[in-house]
């Protein structure tokens, strides 16, 4: 596939102000450093503006404040990064799959003829698939599942019975949607009685779910993932969690049961949120931070440790085990100084 | 499926004292807040007792101390949460699978006729399956594996050769049992020689293993998961780990090789336990805590950080890098005060 | 399979100095504690040397400094652990798979006759496999993938289109190679535009990839895993990460996008490395440590917390939220003491 655009074509489609030769043709997007002949580069972060001068791209996307940093043909737009994303989508349209059911797949529900089902996939009874849904190789779609149009399920994904996935979603390989929540009642002897998990997982539209991410079904009610939510790889979402629209969660995050996360939040990698909390809209949680109480106001929240050379760490962190005693010593000092200082 | 019970039927099956109309019929369990006509609610946590008054359930499960909080028909029992779990099981019996091997499955061992093997599953040679075992779609059961009666393996699970899983277990989608432990000897040039991992994973009875959880096979001896152990999603268990009976481990926990965890422990989400440790029985580890030394006594153990607004965090945590210097300053103050204070 | 070696045969193959009866025959390797008749034990860690005396193995591998700790037949070598690994490989050669394509597999590319493809596996078009490659049950090899000779892909692995895996690699069950990186541009309304991920994952030779580990494809350029790299289970590698030769990463580690890790590094379990950093060669990161800045020099780096009984933790860690105020109090004390002490 050879996709080329003239700059004036791009501006006609996506907007922006064109400076320089309109017939300049570009075939790819590229970073400032690596761009060459035929590439369209972009400056998203002002910190890299020194690289614009030496950039060898055929054209560049710049913010208004940076318009004179280059003599190259250029497109001036308010948000070069989002513009770059749109151009990249033009150059790299989603793969088109030939519709049809692979002879090595097993399909037990009527499905639209525009649907693609790959080798080794299996679709149980009472499943409803929208138009142009793609079910990847080896994936399992459980009984009663509903999936909206255009959603693409990659290989070796498991969707448990009765779960709902919206339209325009992407689910990456190895993801598991609708496994039982971790719900047990404890007996006096320490053994556990399983609490049946009878809720579902309900995923909105335009959601992306990363590879090997797991989302448990609700215990009594549903687990709900809002529209436009982006989940990276290896995330664990507990039962009855609710994630608000357009919230993005980075890799390896764990969210324990019954926690509600607001809209437009950004949760950093390896962060954790314990159960039964409420996180407000527009909250940013830094990487590696464990959230142990509800957050009621938008803002950035952090609790992680400054990395050190091991020797320094041994010296410094040993005191953490005795911080309370240290505070006592300071208090004693204050008191003695108070007593010994005549007013 | 429409399952209904009269309260006197429930008490006849599960015990408890019935207060109010014995013929009251319930069809579901529900939380105090969401319960309505036909629902059986429960008060497990005294903190929610104010909600009992306004509860619109048809009946409610209460502890003896709470028996007069409601005028609704009610069942009085010592542990309402565990009673609720048993009622929920009555209302939601495990799915019954039609026995038989799907034509899209591959089975290379003789198996009982009561076993269910779903589409795309494959069972290697020398496998022994108990009665009514269920092997989910796309799952792989390796050579020489033994699985006890009634165990249900969900979709896309992999069990490596020679591993043993007990009876009455549930293994969720994407779990991997018996992959090689992470064992290498380092050469002088920094390259690694693989140490063959020739132990097995041996899983007891009534164990639940969460989605995408991984349990490595032992290096020389076995990795052992005791009876009644409950493992949440995305847990990593290293080679030669031993987990005692009825221990419960929450999501995203990592346990490094050769560590032994006692019985009836509870390990919080995203906790980590390094290798070659011994954790006593009845130990509780808080979420996000890294255990770096053996724990010899029952109790609750914690090491995680209080989350803060990012600005406060920057101010406070910068000092962590200099805690040792801070202690030196306190010591100097104490000394000077000692010297300047005549006895 | 019954594999036996005389000690003189082992020394002829692997080197070392033989002390004692050359015809002593061993059938297995074992730990000092568990070894018995027919076993070859080893002392790798001087800390266990008291166990050599009571060891009941038929023979033992010792370092020169330990040569007189035992009267057993013994092999004296500079690095007993690496010698043990080599002996263990002799006793436990890798499984030999019968070549051929299982009738339940789907293969859409021409492949060498020495390749093994198990039940339920599917291989897309334009795939190139080396000699004796093994593709496990239910695994998916995407379009245009290249895999070098002798590489073994276990069950339910997914390799996305166009990725490259070298020779002699082992990929464990559930691993995902080449899923989309987590790349989105944010719109003003908080919604996200997907940035097409058009790079590949390129994995070197002799790499081991653990169960359910995920490696994202690059955004524009490739994600690169060097030769001899060892990745444990449940690791997440973000897009455009580069991992240097012979680096070993333990379980549950997350490496965020565009970070470069040097050669021969060792990253402890549950550690995290944020994006866009550079980690030098020969860096060791302790378990549970979050690396938030580049590391330019070899050495050991740590940031984790000492675990405590919960009560002690509550007392000590509460002060962390007020460390800045504590430092102010110390400063005030110093100042007052300065003022009150006449020079």
UniProtKB/TrEMBL annotation, chains A, B, C:
**Superkingdom to which the source organism belongs:** Bacteria
Keyword vocabulary terms for this entry: Acyltransferase, Lipid A biosynthesis, Lipid biosynthesis, Lipid metabolism, Repeat, Transferase
Limits of the UDP-3-O-[3-hydroxymyristoyl] glucosamine N-acyltransferase non-repeat region domain: 25-90
Give the EC number(s) listed in the UniProt record. 2.3.1.191
Recorded catalytic reaction(s): these are: a UDP-3-O-[(3R)-3-hydroxyacyl]-alpha-D-glucosamine + a (3R)-hydroxyacyl-[ACP] = a UDP-2-N,3-O-bis[(3R)-3-hydroxyacyl]-alpha-D-glucosamine + holo-[ACP] + H(+)
Annotated pathway: Bacterial outer membrane biogenesis; LPS lipid A biosynthesis
Please list the residues that make up the active site: 239 (proton acceptor)
- Its top-level enzyme class, in one word, is transferase
Self-association and partners: Homotrimer.
Could you tell me which HAMAP family the record lists for this protein? LpxD
Q: According to its UniProt entry, what is the function of this protein?
A: Catalyzes the N-acylation of UDP-3-O-acylglucosamine using 3-hydroxyacyl-ACP as the acyl donor. Is involved in the biosynthesis of lipid A, a phosphorylated glycolipid that anchors the lipopolysaccharide to the outer membrane of the cell.
Q: Which family does the entry's similarity section mention? A: Belongs to the transferase hexapeptide repeat family. LpxD subfamily.
Q: Which PANTHER family match?
A: UDP-3-O-ACYLGLUCOSAMINE N-ACYLTRANSFERASE, UDP-3-O-ACYLGLUCOSAMINE N-ACYLTRANSFERASE 1, MITOCHONDRIAL-RELATED
What's the protein name? UDP-3-O-acylglucosamine N-acyltransferase
User: What organism is listed for this UniProt entry?
Assistant: Aromatoleum diolicum
């Amino acid at each position: 596939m050879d996709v080329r655009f003239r700059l004036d074509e791009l501006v006609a489609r996506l907007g922006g102000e064109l400076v320089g030769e309109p017939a300049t043709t570009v075939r790819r997007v590229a970073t400032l450093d690596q761009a060459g002949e035929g590439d369209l580069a972009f400056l998203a972060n002002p910190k890299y503006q020194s690289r614009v001068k030496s950039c060898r791209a055929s054209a560049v996307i710049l913010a208004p404040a940076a318009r004179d940093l280059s003599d190259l043909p250029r497109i001036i737009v308010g948000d070069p990064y989002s513009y770059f994303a749109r151009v990249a989508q033009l150059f790299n349209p989603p793969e088109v799959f030939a519709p049809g059911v692979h002879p090595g797949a097993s399909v037990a529900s009527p499905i639209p003829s525009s649907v693609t089902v790959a080798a080794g996939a299996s679709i149980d009874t009472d499943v409803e698939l929208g138009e142009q849904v793609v079910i990847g190789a080896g994936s399992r779609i459980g009984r009663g599942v509903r999936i909206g149009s255009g959603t693409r399920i990659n290989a070796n994904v498991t969707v448990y019975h009765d779960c709902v996935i919206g339209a325009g979603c992407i689910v990456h390989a190895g993801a598991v949607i609708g496994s039982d929540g971790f719900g047990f009642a404890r007996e006096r002897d320490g053994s556990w009685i399983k609490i049946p998990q009878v809720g579902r997982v309900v995923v909105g539209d335009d959601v992306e779910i990363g590879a090997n991410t797991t989302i448990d079904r609700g215990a009594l009610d549903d687990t709900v993932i809002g529209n436009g939510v982006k989940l990276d790889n290896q995330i664990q979402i507990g039962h009855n969690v609710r994630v608000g629209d357009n919230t993005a969660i980075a890799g390896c995050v764990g969210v324990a049961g019954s926690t509600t996360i607001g809209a437009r939040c950004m949760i950093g990698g390896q962060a954790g949120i314990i159960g039964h909390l409420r996180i407000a809209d527009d909250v940013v949680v830094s990487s590696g931070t464990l959230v142990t109480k509800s957050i009621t106001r938008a803002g950035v929240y952090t609790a992680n440790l400054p990395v050190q050379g091991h020797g320094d760490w041994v010296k410094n962190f040993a005191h953490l085990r005795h911080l309370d005693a240290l505070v006592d010593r300071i208090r004693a000092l204050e008191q003695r100084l108070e007593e010994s200082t005549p007013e």
